[in-house]
Amino acid sequence: MIIVLKPDAKKLDTDNLLKKIEDANLKPILLEGTHRSVIAVIGDERKMPAEFLEAQPGVEKTMPILAPYKIASRETKIDNTEIKIGENTLGGKKVGVIAGPCTVESEEQIVSVAKIVKASGAIALRGGAFKPRTNPYSFQGLQEEGLKYLATARKETGLPIVTEVLSEKSIDMVAKYTDVIQIGTRNMANFELLKAVGEVKKPVILKRGMAATLEEFLQAAEYILSQDNPNVILCERGIRTFETHTRFTLSLSIVPQLKELTHLPVIVDPSHGTGKRNLVNPMSKGAVAVGADGLLIEVHHDPEASFVDGPQTINEDDFKTLMLELKPIANAVNREA
Ligand code: PEP
Ligand code: MN
Fold this sequence. Notes:
single chain; 337 residues; alpha/beta; 2 domains; eight-stranded parallel beta barrel; 11 helices; 14 strands; 35% helix; binds phosphoenolpyruvate; binds manganese (II) ion
């Protein structure tokens, strides 16, 4: 259920109401909007009938939430959620580009790619230190050493860092170094991991499961949100279909659909979504044209030498060109890039 507060609801009334809800063993989540705030109430609503709530000071009305995802729903919060990443935000007017190599290979490599992506206007550096590999004998990432190199790259460039966490056992270590936590496609339905990153309170990029429906994707986001972490960024990264000309099928139509159904920022990863370097530029432009709030792009100073995902990784020149070409597309849809 959603409790819509009056525009002039007093803080004391709101605090009292939150306490009453908690005392009834329900979980209240306060979502503060620019015009008015709402409280999403999670749990068995029979414990607090609508008539009781509507009689409380500061309450305008109550409404049932129809979608299976409650906190993520636009029914709960009309305004877009803007998530701060360093000095920038995702979900506002500016389209934010996060870029970096698939994996951290060495200190020199990550610092050099960080400088490249920063020079062209990326808002954050992404690199994997823990890599989810299909083959157990493939390179698994530099792990804590990789996290340290990411921290060095942040120090040298000022770019916030994004890196993936693979399991609950490494959450504390990853959270110690990173600004933003990534949950990969293979872990979208690892509900214990989602709950655990929800407790960390740092922004989370949640990648869509490669076989997940839109509703499953939003319910996965709800796992993180329901731990009182409001900073969830949804990432479309391609789904499995019968098509083989690309690595996955980048489902761009999910972007405007998600923007209708949720207030959370939505970004697109055309690198994993296509698996092909030549498709990264056009699909990035397509993503911005259909309303993406940002992009996640694999960049390397020498893509052919990349340890992982070389065929979908672009070089410095291509990244620079892409960043310039995104600007008119963003302007055409009333955004900035
Ligand atoms: C990645 O971002 O490097 C990655 C492994 O992505 P995904 O989880 O989308 O496959
Ligand atoms: Mn990759």
